[in-house]
Amino acid sequence: MAQSTTKYDADAIQVLEGLEAVRRRPGMYVGGTDAKALHHLIYEVVDNSIDEALAGACTRIEVYIHPDSSVTVSDNGRGIPVGIHPQMKKSALEVVMTTLHAGGKFGGGGYKVSGGLHGVGVSAVNALSEWCEVEVRRDAQVYFQRYERGVPEEPVKIIGKAKPGETGTKTTFKYDPLIFKEDVEYNFNVLAQRFREMAFVTRGVTIFFCDERTQREMTFYFEGGIRSFVRYLNRNRNVLHPVVYIEKEVEGIGIEAAIQYTDAFTESIYSFANTINTVDGGTHMTGLRSAITRVINEYARKNVLLKDSDPNFTGEDTREGLTAIISIKHPDPQFESQTKVKLMNAEVQGYVAQVVGEAFGTFLEENPQAARAIVAKCLTSSRARDAARKARDLIIRKSALESLTLPGKLADCSERDPSKAELFIVEGDSAGGSAKQGRDRHFQAILPLRGKILNTERARLDKILSNNEVKALISALGTGIGDNFDINNLRYGRVIIMTDADVDGSHIRTLLLTFFFRYMPQLIEDGHLFIAQPPLYRIAYKDKVRYAYSDREKEKILKELGASDKATIQRYKGLGEMNPEQLWETTLNPQNRTLLLVTIEDAAEADRTFDMLMGDAVDPRRRFIQTHAKAVRNLDV
Fold first, then answer.
1. Domain harbouring 299, CATH code
2. At a CB cut-off of 8 Å and minimum separation 6, what does 188 contact?
3. Across the strands, what pairs with 135?
4. What is d(CA 441, CA 280) in angstroms, rounded to the nearest whole number?
5. Can 34 be counted among the known catalytic residues?
6. Exposure winner among 105, 141, 431, 472, fewest CB in 10 A?
7. Residue 349 falls within a domain, yes or no?
8. pLDDT at 452
């Protein structure tokens, strides 16, 4: 065994001074250095303002993205304290901005509940910024300090007088390109959705958001709180009853829930802890779900809506068509990780189950018509689930060799390591033929789909599983579906949707995305789903051949070639028009192709969009088409 030549003694123990630890390991504090982490910087600063709102000290928050991508967040809260900190012997403002785990969220003095990162948040943002400036209005003065990569340029100073009674904090920062090296930028829609959620779960606060790069702005204020949130999510659905709203405090923990059933086939449940969207759920989510299932079963048994021979409803039965929000305010929230995606406080589960169970049970007793409609919905769901299980068992029936029977139309690859294998889902047999000939058989598999798959937004799982194209897709992927879904059995590390660049192709792509979003979301969450980008044009001039993926790119290439009139331009209406060599060169070859990774940046917005585009309600879809018609590109008539 080779001997290590590295000396390991007291000198080898590094102490990272100040905020250097954050700059060395940004992933530990904001989740990485990608676009998601970039947005997280803004969330952390806004969370501090939301904490002021939760403390009853702030009614307005303003967020500006400036043309140079610097960001300003201001509020009318109490203002960060500026007095000399007794322990650190410098301004409390400087302590908060430059010291990890410093803030008013410890010891219960400054805040009863908070969503900020326990003093890590704003100092981590400061550490990961090229520069940061903070202005504090309090005690009739305006205080100021500037930092370069987390280091103060000078002590906190007074730069003016505040207006009578004016208080608050204004933070302006520019992310550090030495940390965020990728080509990342702020996304207006992602931020707007987050601010909308914050306004829903923090009643009485106004959040104004302005993007000076595009002159877009939005203001969020919801007097109805999470009740308004549920109505917002269900505005394209047929509801079975009014929103059931629950609010109670147990052992110092504030519990809020809003529940409403619709005639949809999917569930939309979102959880928040101290206004932070806990996307992976946690104990509050578990408490809500268990209470709803228990109460519905008790009501159905008591009112003989379930026969003695019928089994109890499962959680899956009682969640079909359910839209619910659970929001808790906890003085000491415990999260699974620094980026707060899952709540871990064990006691919360019991408290939420108790509060929701009592209130929802009372609602069912006092509203028998709504209760019967909910139970009828669960009964239909239960029967459909039973039928789906039988259909699913048929699909995943194993052969004598215990391997899944693969669909006959699948042209498989020889690679058996899923991380190296790719599956192209191709529209139509003609394109499938070109793809089969043009692919690299070693690692690329082709599954041609005939026609359009079923609209999975308007059908239950049992009907979906009787569709031959869906069966072929599930068999090829190997993961199973529903209760039997297991990402570890995925046969291909990349699943790539490859459709024509026309209206039918877009429709098929949307149908496939709907299916994956509803029934295999982990495929998207784990980064396995992609969309291929075939070119729109082939441009030939003299001995040169170039491909263009948009009209703008076509004009640019023609200009570069100096051949605006003389070039031969072929417009590809479909993948089948390309010969195998062209398809390989432009769309299949990893060296040249362009793939778009499918992500779920925000589940609530994706849920609403799929519901609106693919659901039963016609008016919202018509409004959407009328609103966005002028923005459509590459629409073949």
1. 3.30.230.10
2. 65, 211, 214, 216
3. 144, 170
4. 38
5. no
6. 141
7. yes
8. 66
Express each pLDDT in 102-148 by its tens digit. 555 444 455 566 655 434 578 888 888 899 999 999 999 999 999 99
Q: What is 451-486 written as a DSSP string?
A: SPPP-TTSS-HHHHTT-HHHHHHHHHH-S--GGG--
248: tokens are: 């109670």
Active site residue 565: no
Instruction: Answer yes or no: 502 catalytic.
Output: yes
20-42 burial string, b = 16+ CB within 10 Å, else e? ebbbeebeebbbbbebebbbbbb
Cα end-to-end distance, the chain, whole Å: 70
Q: Are strands 529-532 and 537-541 parallel, antiparallel or unpaired?
A: unpaired
In a domain, 105, yes or no: yes
Q: Are residues 205 and 270 in the same domain?
A: no
- Both 383 and 430 in one domain: the answer is no
Catalytic residue among 298, 502, 525, 577: 502
Q: Which candidate in 500, 585, 607, 611 is catalytic?
A: 500
- 56 plus 89 within the same structural domain: yes
Whether the CB-CB separation of 270 and 604 falls below 8 Å is answered with yes
Domains identified in the chain, total number = 3
Backbone angles phi, psi at 266, to 5 degrees: -120, 165
Q: How many CB atoms sit inside 10 A of residue 442's CB?
A: 10
* Nearest in space to 460 (alpha carbons), one of 538, 381, 393: 381
What letter would DSSP give residue 593?
-
Residues 231 and 144 in one domain: no
**Rg value, the chain, Cα:** 28
Active site residue 393: no
In a domain, 14, yes or no: no
Do residues 160 and 166 lie in contact, with contact meaning Cβ atoms separated by under 8 Å? no
Do 173 and 131 share a structural domain?
yes
Q: Going by C-beta distance under 8 Å and a sequence separation of 6 or more, which residues neighbour residue 396? A: 404, 474, 475, 480, 484
Q: Indicate whether 34 and 161 sit together in one domain.
A: yes
Tell me the per-residue pLDDT of 360-380, one tens digit each, with 9 for 90 and over.
999 999 999 999 999 999 998
Cβ within 8 Å of residue 7, ≥6 positions away:
none
Three-state secondary-structure class, residue 269: strand
DSSP letter (8 states) at residue 152: E
Catalytic residue among 75, 94, 412, 427: 427
Is the same domain home to 314 and 377?
yes
Torsions phi, psi for 109 (to 5 deg)? -80, -55
Domain assignment of residue 375, yes or no: yes
pLDDT beneath 70, residues of the chain? 1-18, 26-27, 29-31, 101-120, 337-340, 390-406, 408, 429-430, 451-452, 454-461, 482-483, 564, 601-637
CATH label of the domain that carries residue 475: 3.40.50.670
Q: What is the dihedral of CA 569, 571, 576, 581, to 10 degrees?
A: 30
Query: Which of 332, 357, 392 is at the close of a domain?
Result: 392
Residues 381 and 232 in one domain: yes
Catalytic residue among 247, 504, 525, 601: 504
